[in-house]
């Protein structure tokens, strides 16, 4: 029960922080607000697994921090912490389809919405993040 309460509080905090980061992140993507030829979709873990299987060109970007990887990560994913993207020290390519992954889906949702409004053409968000991926009993690396 304590774990559920802690996870709920942590999830709420991450979601809140994710939406607080959007204005700050927009400063890192100046002049792109007018580009709206994009596709953004939140997908279930099963849909994400199908994308990974069928779309060999899709990039899996894990926006969690290094310290969160002990919870497991999806094979083939690249760690690109949200803060590094916000600061501009890392930048996902705009010309490839991207599946964003985080712990519970909040950070990746906020970033995906931001990216789709700023020139990224095809962005997917893993609904429920790694937590939902685990619940679906899909494979993880450790």
Structure in words:
- The chain contains 5 helices and 5 strands.
- By secondary structure, it is α/β, with parallel strands linked by helices.
- It has one domain (2-135): Oxidized Rhodanese, domain 1 (3-Layer(aba) Sandwich), CATH 3.40.250.
- It has a 5-stranded parallel β-sheet.
- Helix 1 (2-26) runs parallel beside helix 4.
- The two termini are 26 Å apart.
Describe this protein with a few key phrases.
142 residues; alpha/beta; Oxidized Rhodanese, domain 1; 5-stranded parallel β-sheet; 5 helices; globular
Number of helices: 5
Q: Looking across the biggest beta sheet, what order are the strands in?
A: 1-5-4-2-3
- The CATH class name reads Alpha Beta
CA radius of gyration is: 14 Å
Content of β-strand: 5-15%
End-to-end distance, in Å?
Answer: 26 Å
Secondary structure class reads alpha/beta
- Classified in CATH, the superfamily is Rhodanese-like domain
Level of helix content?
A: 40-55%
Low-confidence stretches: 31-35
Instruction: Kindly give the count of domains.
Output: 1
* CATH architecture type: 3-Layer(aba) Sandwich
Order of helices and strands: HEHEEHEHEH
Tally the beta strands: 5
The main pleated sheet reads as: 5 strands, parallel
Give average pLDDT, whole number: 85
Shape: globular
What is the fold named in CATH at topology level?
Oxidized Rhodanese, domain 1
């Amino acid at each position: 029960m304590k774990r559920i309460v802690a996870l709920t509080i942590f999830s709420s905090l991450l979601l809140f922080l994710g939406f607080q980061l959007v204005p700050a992140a927009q400063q890192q993507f100046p002049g792109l607000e007018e580009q709206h030829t994009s596709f953004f979709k939140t997908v279930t873990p099963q849909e994400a697994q199908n994308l990974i299987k069928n779309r060999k060109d899709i990039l899996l970007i894990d926006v969690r921090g290094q310290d969160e990887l002990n919870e497991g990560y999806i094979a083939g994913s690249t760690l690109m912490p949200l803060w590094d993207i916000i600061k501009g020290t890392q930048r996902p390519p705009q010309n490839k389809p991207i599946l964003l992954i985080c712990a519970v889906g909040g950070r990746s949702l906020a970033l995906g919405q931001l990216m789709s409004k700023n020139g990224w053409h095809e962005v997917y968000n893993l609904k429920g993040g790694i937590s939902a991926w685990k619940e679906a009993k899909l494979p993880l690396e450790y």
